[in-house]
Amino acid sequence: MKRYQYLILTALLTGSLLPSNAQTWTNLFDGKTLTGWKQATGKATYTVANGEIIGTTVANSPNSFLVTEKEYGDFILELDIKVNSTETNSGVQTRSHYDPSGNNGAGKVYGRQVEVDPSDRKWSGGIYDEGRRDWLYPLELNAKAKPAFKVGEWNHYRIECFGNSIKTWVNGIAAAYMADTIDSKGFIGLQVHGISNEGQAGKKIYFKNIKIQTANLKPAPFPQGIYVVNYVSNQLTDYEKKDGWRLLFDGKTNAGWIGANMATFPTKPNGWVIRDGTMTILGSAGGEAANVGDIITREEFSAFDLSFEFKMSTGANSGVKYFVTLNEDTKGSAIGLEYQVLDDKVHPDAKLGRNGDRTLASLYDLIPSNKPERFIRPIGAWNTGRIIVYPNNHVEHYLNGVKVLEYERGSKEFKDLVAISKFVVWKNFGEAKQGHLLLQDHGFEVNYRSIKLKPLHD
How is 321-346 classified by DSSP, letter by letter? Predict the structure, then answer.
């Protein structure tokens, strides 16, 4: 008996009886010093007091970063953050990097940043790509999480980086979810945003209870119904599949698509081609449906959440149409509500219509999109469009994660707009119960990929 008790005591002391999947935390901040951290860029000061790291803004300084000396791959990171002023900004770098030659030799930190945003915009928990791609997950994509962050109070952040995914929580509220294709490891950093206004100098950002797990990782439950920014082309995450999303283009074939007013997919040379994971309409001198014409989904849809990526050539014109019935007698492109795809700077259509209602991401010839310039990706880069049609006929357009317009399909306001548009000649335009989705051939090369849809129900 004594020998048995001795063996149990020995096992407990050595940990051999602990569960093999036990989670252990490592403190990244000892509460007293900045051991394990170093300042990478900027002039903001980082000090320690009362078990807190305190970052203080300095006038005429670029973004400042206090970063870990170690790099991390898969991890769960938790920390508490407090910001007392709405005039400053911060963030937590994940799997990030340092380029000593960046910013003309002053050095540059780049990589994904989980936002700390006390402004009225309320994008705390969103994901920004510091020094590289700009916004990846604006919190317009999950507006329910915007109130989670509290100015002047301690806010608890949880960040999970597993494989190619990153998930964020603020005060227990799920904020952002994205799947990326770059940065499998890198350092963790605490940002103090640069300022140029002397009046903003001396603003403080507080960090404490910074801890990390790197082994035996167990993800926290993430509620369904949150949009995923997925940069892995033509693929869905397991979460998206469970949430009801499905691909409308598999990246390899034309399955599910046919030519408008045709029984098959158009095969005329120099028309629609599938190559390198894209559905591409080749250029043909700018004529509307003059080469092979539009393509539509075989299926029809009513209420849905549609997401797609597109890449334009210089001067391009195309569009994604919805509620296409093919009942109208038309010459050229089939009729439907249209999310405009256009090179606003070159194509003349951008200057036609009323108040810019033929520009990129607008509801063509009806409602102009309100899009900040920074959220328009350049020609030759991929943009992400999104159209949500709710069961109550409320409709929203997004461009690169930002909502650019909304309207009520079939409302008096909608009918009034139709009455002064080119669509007035079609009775009850845009009010069909259901319809096809359409990719437009307007004679310019435009590429589409990652076309995915989630049906919406009451």
Answer: EEEE-S-S--SSSPPSEEEEEE-TTT
pLDDT, one tens digit per residue, over 268-310 is: 777 899 999 999 999 887 677 667 899 999 999 999 999 999 9
CB 124 within 8 A of CB 117: yes
pLDDT in tens, 382-417: 999 999 999 999 999 999 999 999 999 999 999 999
The tokens describing 48, both together, are: 């320690």
- Would you list the DSSP string of 99-160? ETTTTTTT-EEEEEEEEE--STT--TT-EEEETTTEEEE-GGGGGGGGGG--TTS-EEEEEE
Question: Residue 42: which of 19, 59, 20, 22 has the closest Cα?
Answer: 59
> In this structure, are 208 and 242 located in the same domain?
no
Q: Quick one: average pLDDT of 244-270? A: 93
Q: How far is CA 363 from the centre of its chain?
A: 21
Which tokens go with 233? 């082309």
What is the Cα–Cα distance from 324 to 322, expressed in whole angstroms?
A: 5
Are both 78 and 133 inside the same structural domain? yes
- Say what the pTM is: 0.92
At 99, which CATH number?
2.60.120.560
Domain count, the chain: 2
* In-domain check, residue 2: no
Helices (H) and strands (E) in the chain, counts: 3, 29
Domain membership of residue 354 as a residue range: 233-455
Does residue 79 belong to any structural domain of this protein? yes
Rounded to whole angstroms, what are the CA distances from 242 to 222, 226, 246? 12, 12, 10
